[in-house]
C-alpha cells in the first residue's frame, strides 16, 4: 500500500469521504477528484484481475446481460460519429468477453479489444474475436490508428487515468470519438452513510477513482479532447431482483429528468456515459 497525490491536479490535499475494508476513499480539496488513498502499488494491480469477471459467480452470460442495453446504445452513438470516421477501426479497452466487439463486428465494423483478465480473453479469442491479453499500457499501435475508442467501466480501475486519456488521445485519428462509461458513486454513499452502509459501492481496491461529470470533463479537456458531453445512458441490468429493479428505476428516472430539463440536470449517483472527440 502506498499513498498517492491527486491524479488530476497533482495536489496532496485529501479530505476523508469513506472507509471500506481498510481502504480510505478521499476527495481532493483542490479539484474534487475522489480516489482511494493509500492503495495497492501499481505493479500489484494487474494480479487483482486474474478472476475479476468471475466474482460472485459472474460469467459471460451474466456480463453480456448486464451490459446489453449499454452496448446497443453505444453502438448507435458510434454509428453517428461525424468527420467521416464511421468505418474506421474501433478499440474497446477492458473488453472482457468481447460482447461489444462482437456486436460491432456484426454491424460490419472493424473492432478489436484488450483486457487484463485471462479467462474472458480466452473465451473471446476462442470465438475468433480479435482480443489481446494486457492493458492499455501494453498496447503497441501507431498514433492516429483508431476512429473510436470505448471504455465501459474501465477508467475508474486505472492507476493513472490522465496518462490513459493521453494515450487514447494519441491513438485516435483526428475527429475520432472517445466513449466512456463510469460510475458516480459518492452521492449515493453520502446519502446512505447515516444508515451505516453504502461504502461497499466504491468496490475498492478494484475501483481506484469515482468521477463526477465536472471532474471527468476537466480531465478530458486537459488531455486535449473537445466537446465532452455527459448524459445518463441506458441502465445496466444486474442479476438479482433488487439490484435490477434499482438500476432500472434510477436509470430511467435519470434519463427522464435529463430529457425534461433539456439536458441540464444530471441525477447524482447514477452511472453516466460521456463522449468526447479529438479535434479534426
Alpha carbon gyration radius? 18 Å
Number of helices: 7
Quickly name the level 1 CATH class: Alpha Beta
**How many discrete domains?**
1
DSSP, total strands: 11
- The CATH topology is given as Rossmann fold
Main β-sheet description: 7 strands, mixed
Strand order of the largest sheet: 6-5-4-7-8-11-10
Strand content: 15-25%
CATH architecture: 3-Layer(aba) Sandwich
CATH superfamily: Vaccinia Virus protein VP39
pLDDT < 50 runs, ≥5 residues? none
Overall pLDDT metric: 89
| SSE topology string | EEEHEHEHEEHEHEHEHE
Helix/strand-derived category reads: alpha/beta
Explain how this protein is built.
With 280 residues, this protein is of the alpha/beta class. It has a single domain (48-183, 210-277), classed as Rossmann fold (3-Layer(aba) Sandwich), CATH 3.40.50. The protein has helices at 60-79, 99-106, 118-126, 161-171, 186-192, 213-222, 241-260; strands spanning 14-20, 23-28, 34-36, 89-93, 110-115, 131-133, 146-152, 172-182, 209-210, 226-231, 272-277. Strands 6-5-4-7-8-11-10 form a seven-stranded mixed sheet, with helices on both faces. A four-stranded antiparallel sheet has the order 1-2-3-9, covered by helices on one side. Strand 5, helix 3 and strand 6 form a beta-alpha-beta unit.
Amino acid at each position: 500500500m502506498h499513498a498517492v497525490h491527486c491524479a488530476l491536479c497533482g495536489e496532496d490535499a485529501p479530505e476523508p469521504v469513506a472507509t471500506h475494508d481498510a481502504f480510505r476513499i478521499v476527495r481532493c480539496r483542490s479539484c474534487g477528484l475522489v480516489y482511494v488513498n493509500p492503495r495497492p502499488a501499481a505493479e500489484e494491480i494487474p494480479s487483482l484481475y486474474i478472476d475479476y469477471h468471475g466474482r460472485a459467480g459472474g460469467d459471460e452470460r451474466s456480463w453480456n446481460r448486464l451490459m446489453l442495453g449499454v452496448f446497443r446504445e453505444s453502438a448507435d452513438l458510434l454509428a453517428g460519429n461525424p468527420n467521416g470516421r464511421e468505418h474506421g477501426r474501433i478499440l474497446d479497452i477492458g473488453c472482457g468477453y468481447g460482447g461489444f466487439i462482437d456486436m460491432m463486428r456484426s454491424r460490419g465494423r472493424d473492432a478489436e479489444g484488450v483486457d487484463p483478465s485471462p479467462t474472458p480473453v480466452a473465451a473471446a479469442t476462442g470465438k475468433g474475436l480479435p482480443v489481446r491479453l494486457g492493458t492499455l499500457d501494453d498496447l503497441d499501435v501507431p498514433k492516429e490508428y483508431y476512429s473510436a475508442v470505448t471504455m465501459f467501466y474501465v477508467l475508474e480501475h486505472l492507476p493513472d487515468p490522465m496518462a490513459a486519456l493521453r494515450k487514447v488521445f494519441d491513438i485516435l485519428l483526428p475527429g475520432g470519438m472517445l466513449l466512456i462509461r463510469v460510475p458516480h458513486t459518492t452521492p449515493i454513499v453520502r446519502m446512505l452513510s447515516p444508515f451505516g452502509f453504502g461504502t461497499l459501492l466504491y468496490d475498492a481496491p478494484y475501483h481506484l477513482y469515482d468521477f463526477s461529470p465536472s471532474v471527468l470533463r476537466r480531465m478530458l479537456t486537459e488531455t486535449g479532447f473537445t466537446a465532452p458531453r455527459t448524459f445518463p445512458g441506458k441502465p445496466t441490468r444486474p442479476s438479482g431482483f433488487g439490484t435490477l429493479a434499482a438500476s432500472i428505476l434510477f436509470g430511467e428516472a435519470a434519463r427522464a429528468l435529463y430529457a425534461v430539463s433539456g439536458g441540464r440536470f444530471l441525477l447524482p449517483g447514477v452511472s453516466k456515459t460521456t463522449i468526447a472527440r479529438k479535434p479534426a
